Amino acid sequence: MAEAAVHSSASLLASLIGALPMAIAYDGWHAVLFSLTCLLGEHLFSPDLDHNSGARPYRRWGWLRIIWWLYQRLIPHRSPLSHWPILGTIGRIVYLVTLAMPAIVYFEVDVAGIIFEYETVSIAVMTGLEASNTTHWLFDTILR
Fold this sequence. Notes:
It is a single chain. The protein is mostly helical. The protein has one domain. The protein has helices spanning about 5-25, 30-45, 55-60, 70-75, 80-85, 85-105, 110-115, 120-140. Helix 2 crosses helix 8. The chain starts with a helix and ends with a helix.
């Protein structure tokens, strides 16, 4: 298992490497967005949110970390649902959207409409989060 500093450094590297293809495919703004979400992915949206034994990403949520209580009870640590590429990222997004569902329904937010209206922004955000998750998984697998 990789140390927190290794995960942070790996996410920084992934954010820099992944920014180039994003800049080529879209523009500099999307590259910056990719890099920021990659870094935020490791610091606030990490696969290690599936346990609370002092994990830094969990502590960084402050008093809001209570929202991860049910997630930690439902998802075993290092399970495919939390750590595997794509599946782990989608799982955490679905979990947060499920928690936000009452507000989404009350305020009649068209989540799908927002995603499709801002398609390239959504792609930059999702690939940034996924790059962070995949990097985390790779380093956990390699340094096991």
